[in-house]
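We examine the record.

___
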Amino acid sequence: MSLLSRRALLLLVLALPAWAWALDFGFRPPSDPDDAAAVDVMRDLAERIVPVYQEAETDAFLANMTALQIVSGAYRAAADSNRTLRGRQQGKPFDGLAERAVLDGIYARARALEKNERLAFASAYARAFQELVSPLDNAQAAAVMTRLQTPPAAYREPVRQAFDRWRAKGSIPQADAVALVRTWLAYQSRRSFSMLLPELVAAEHRRRYVAEGDVRIPVRGGVVIHANVVRPGGAKGPLPTLLRFTLDPSEDDAQRSAVKGYVGITAYVRGRTPDGKGAVWPFVRDGEDAAAVIDWIARQPW
């Protein structure tokens, strides 16, 4: 561990309230996060933390309490804690805390709907997703959807490592327990909703943006340049445009440009199509072709 890392860890430890040092919870997790017993073990741990959890900083308290209540199965209480937290974020910068509040809020709301209104989880999650993501602006929604699409595997290994570490000790300090509950929630929740996201995200993009795939732009000599165009929906009048001229489909950032309020265009060198097929001769006609694409852009009403 570097000196900088050790200092950062020391500052984090020193920042813990005094009561956090005194609380220790018995903890015997299974060997594998995918073991069916892990759900009950983590629920039991969260249930024991909730009545004694304290935190001087209100927003941090509400964020962690939301996670603890979700994992403990107290979904209505979690939704209430989360609603209070999101209310406190109104008018503030959309930072990591605000983003996390939306992520947890969707899941807490979905589980509460599932339990209280007897909805199938897929329907409950779709409703919660629409309720909390729709009011966000494009940049905020994009940040939330990107985080939601983090694969469950990204959280599985940290959970496994924590299980191994604290199983050997037989107990876990409260600060570490709360951190583990958060990581477990990220892993467990994504296992339940990751398959639902492609359709939900695609629908949200259709609502927010006008996307045109494989637009064909004529250039000199009867050749066409293939392009993808993404525009923010509901724009009043023309918008500035960002063009990427490339031969690599992996560089298609038209959507990212549209998130920032531009018309985003990814145009491909002659011969290339958006699916990466077609023979290309890079650099031979790129200059005149790119100029022709820019001229075409300038003539568009958007």
Observations:
- The chain is about 55% helix and 15% strand.
- The CA atoms of residues 66 and 80 lie 8 Å apart.
- The longest strand covers residues 209-219.
- The radius of gyration is 24 Å.
